[in-house]
């Protein structure tokens, strides 16, 4: 019931899961504010309503008198606490188990990715051994694969940004697979000191079987952007748990771009260590024939006055293209003054592709600023096409403009021109050559 | 010199048994140099007329003709209609995330003119038109209609009309939701176009307010899917004072009579 096989969707049919903001149908347009987005920018908690309550326990909108908190998420550094997944578990039910077995069943190994690093001044790249106090304080793994990774990685690579450092360029870790049969197990910790400002880019390329944990510790008042690019060679398998611990009044931005690989399954968790923190989680994915791309997010609001904003957009084309987006947001009783919004949009470009989209919002206090979510999966937005065509632009060019814009909307959040251009180039290549729309940019100075 | 001719146009919305007739025999002729105001109450089909002429797929033409200089508009695709010289300034312009205004305008101008406008003159044209519409230059780098205020959207529509230079422009409730300043700026943009050239304007509005700024040559009262009265600018004054009540009443009585005789 939470799955929508959009492969059979008519042109511009919106299909949604568990959302109170259904996709806009062409016949419902011509209303003020109707645009590309599936819902309004914010939805007050009191309006999130009771619609779409489909999956048990997955979508409870708490009222003034909570009927009981949902169970705590299981976390542990011990893989055996989770047991061996069968594919029937909630956290694994969307994952093709056969294709992730190479990681789940993979042996410990010394294999590693090739690292090409660019470290600006103020940044230290070091490593810690297993048992280091730093590792004990990290958020725990949420599934067996993440626990195996923590265990097998042994220690961790650590990127340290000194407090109050203002980096003159991004920290770049080019992580290239070398194509061996062994699973590469890895743990990375990015530790950013108070009031520092840093951007860290993880650029994954090449062929690999890779399971990598990433933890970002954002100091009080710090501003950190983590960009993770999955531009893997075909056949690659990548699993990973990303955790962010956002300090008081800190700003954390994460941009996940998944383009390559056979299977990519990333779990991104955010927690707040102090009040006033902000997390912006952006994601872009493009699944071609047979690719499985799964992004699971969990934002845990447990302290007051924090903000989270989630925007993930994906496109699918070709037979067997498959994407999964799970967006869980929990607002605990103590998290008064929370402001949260999450949006997932999927653009299905051909038949035979399937996108699953499941936003879950659990609100345990009424004392919040706003909480909302929206999810829409469908073909092109007819209204956008009509608008462009009504200006003389032919339908094919209009479609390319819309798809390009669909991605650029998220990619432009990276803030690094060279990477944005490269990624848009990759996307355009996969869409087929665009007519030279951008060769002559217009600057209105 | 262009002529848009609409003859006995019938349009439905919806499919099969749900199909509902919105336009019930519209006759209208708009020539270059003329400004026509179409006025009518909510739900009378004014916007349907605008979108039907532009070719929105939601509407099905079940009868009648629309021609531009003798060419069959109804046989053209949406983009062909625009390239033939029709322009629709929309009541609710659509957001296109990730597509900048400058890219959009240039792509549209290239499509309409059949070749990319020369960069230097184009940049100058865009800049001066934006200044005349009191739009900040930063506007060009924003995504199309995304986060625009109501006034910004309408100015953006008029900016497009100025740059694409259509033969016939249909302005669908361009005045709705505008404050006095924005209404003046938008109206001045329309008036500049009228003064400069041979444009024909079809101004669709619910209120007479915009007609204080843009003087129509002809006023058509639109009720229940067709034109029920025509006159000059003085008809707008009459509507200002008396509203649509009399026309709506007539229409209802007529509908009742039709039902009774059926």
UniProtKB/TrEMBL annotation, chain A:
Boundaries of every SUF system FeS cluster assembly SufBD core domain copy: 180-406
Region annotated Disordered, chain positions: 1-87
One Pfam family here: SUFBD_core
Polar residues bias (residue ranges): 1-24, 44-53
GO biological process, one term: iron-sulfur cluster assembly
Top-level taxon: Bacteria
Family: Belongs to the iron-sulfur cluster assembly SufBD family.
PANTHER family from the UniProt entry: PROTEIN ABCI7, CHLOROPLASTIC (PTHR43575:SF1)
Protein name: Fe-S cluster assembly protein SufD
UniProt source species: Blastococcus aurantiacus
TrEMBL record, chain B:
KW Amino-acid biosynthesis (keyword) present: no
GO MF annotation, one: ATP hydrolysis activity
SUPFAM superfamilies the record matches: P-loop containing nucleoside triphosphate hydrolases
Pfam families in alphabetical order: ABC_tran (PF00005)
Keywords: ATP-binding, Nucleotide-binding
UniProt similarity note: Belongs to the ABC transporter superfamily. Ycf16 family.
UniProt protein name: Fe-S cluster assembly ATP-binding protein
The organism of origin for this protein: Blastococcus aurantiacus
């Amino acid at each position: 019931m939470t799955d929508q096989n959009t492969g059979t969707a008519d042109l511009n049919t919106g299909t949604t899961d568990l959302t109170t903001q259904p996709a806009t149908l062409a016949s419902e347009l011509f209303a003020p504010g109707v645009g590309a987005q599936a819902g309004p920018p914010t939805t007050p908690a009191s309006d999130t309503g009771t619609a779409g309550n489909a999956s048990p326990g997955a979508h409870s909108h708490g009222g003034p008198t909570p009927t009981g908190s949902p169970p705590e998420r299981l976390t542990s550094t011990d893989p055996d606490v989770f047991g061996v997944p069968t594919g029937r578990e909630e956290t694994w039910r969307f994952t093709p188990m056969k294709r992730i077995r190479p990681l789940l069943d993979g042996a410990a190994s010394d294999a590693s990715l090739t690292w090409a690093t660019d470290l600006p001044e103020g940044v230290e790249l070091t490593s810690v051994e297993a048992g280091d106090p730093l590792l004990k304080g990290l958020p725990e793994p949420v599934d067996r694969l993440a626990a195996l990774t923590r265990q097998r990685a042994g220690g961790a690579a650590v990127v340290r940004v000194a407090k109050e450092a203002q980096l003159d360029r991004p920290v770049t870790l080019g992580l290239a697979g070398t194509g061996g049969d062994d699973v590469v197990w890895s743990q990375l910790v990015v530790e950013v000191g108070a009031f520092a400002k840093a951007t860290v880019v993880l650029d994954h390329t090449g062929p690999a079987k890779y399971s990598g944990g990433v933890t970002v510790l954002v100091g009080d008042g710090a501003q950190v952007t983590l960009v993770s690019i999955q531009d893997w060679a075909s056949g690659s398998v990548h699993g990973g748990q990303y955790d962010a611990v956002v300090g008081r009044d800190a700003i954390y931005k994460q941009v996940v771009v998944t383009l390559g690989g056979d299977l990519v399954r990333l779990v991104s968790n955010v927690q707040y260590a102090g009040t006033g923190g902000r997390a912006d989680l952006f994601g872009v994915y493009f699944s071609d024939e047979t690719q499985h791309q799964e992004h699971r997010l969990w934002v845990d609001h447990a302290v007051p006055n924090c903000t989270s904003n989630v925007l993930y957009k994906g496109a699918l084309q070709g037979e067997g293209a498959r994407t999964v987006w799970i967006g869980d947001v929990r607002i605990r009783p103590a998290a008064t003054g929370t402001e949260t919004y999450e949006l997932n949009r999927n653009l299905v470009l051909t038949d035979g592709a399937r996108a699953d989209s499941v936003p879950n919002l659990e609100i345990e206090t009424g004392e919040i600023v706003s909480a909302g979510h929206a999810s829409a999966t469908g073909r092109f937005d007819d209204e956008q096409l009509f608008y462009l065509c009504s200006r003389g632009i032919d339908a094919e060019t209009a479609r390319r403009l819309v798809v390009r814009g669909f991605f650029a909307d998220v990619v432009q959040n990276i803030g690094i021109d060279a990477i944005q251009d490269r990624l848009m180039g990759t996307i355009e290549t996969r869409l087929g050559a665009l007519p030279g729309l951008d060769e002559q940019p217009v600057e209105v100075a | 010199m262009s002529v848009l001719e609409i003859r006995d146009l019938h349009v439905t919305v919806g499919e099969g048994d749900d199909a509902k007739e919105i336009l019930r025999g519209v006759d209208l002729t708009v020539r270059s140099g003329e400004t026509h105001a179409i006025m009518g109450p909510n739900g009378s089909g004014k916007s349907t007329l605008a979108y039907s002429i532009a070719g929105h797929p939601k509407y099905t033409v079940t009868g009648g003709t629309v021609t531009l200089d003798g060419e069959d508009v109804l046989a053209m695709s949406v983009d062909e209609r625009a390239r033939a010289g029709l322009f629709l300034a929309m009541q609710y312009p659509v957001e296109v995330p990730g597509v900048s205004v400058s890219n959009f305008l240039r792509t549209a101008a290239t499509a309409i003119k059949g070749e990319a406008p020369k960069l230097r003159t184009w940049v100058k044209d865009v800049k001066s038109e934006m200044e005349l519409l009191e739009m900040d230059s930063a506007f060009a780098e924003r995504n199309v209609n995304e986060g625009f205020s109501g006034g910004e959207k309408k100015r953006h529509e008029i900016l497009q009309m100025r740059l694409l230079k259509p033969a016939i422009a249909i302005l669908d409730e361009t005045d709705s939701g505008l404050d006095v300043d924005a209404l003046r700026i938008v109206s001045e943009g329309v008036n500049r176009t009228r003064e400069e050239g041979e444009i024909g304007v079809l101004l669709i509005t619910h209120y007479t307010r915009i007609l204080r700024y843009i003087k129509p040559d002809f006023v058509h009262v639109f009720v229940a899917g067709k034109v029920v009265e025509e006159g000059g600018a003085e008809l707008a004054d009459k509507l200002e004072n008396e509203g649509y009540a009399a026309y709506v009443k007539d229409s209802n009585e007529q509908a009742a009579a039709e039902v009774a005789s059926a």
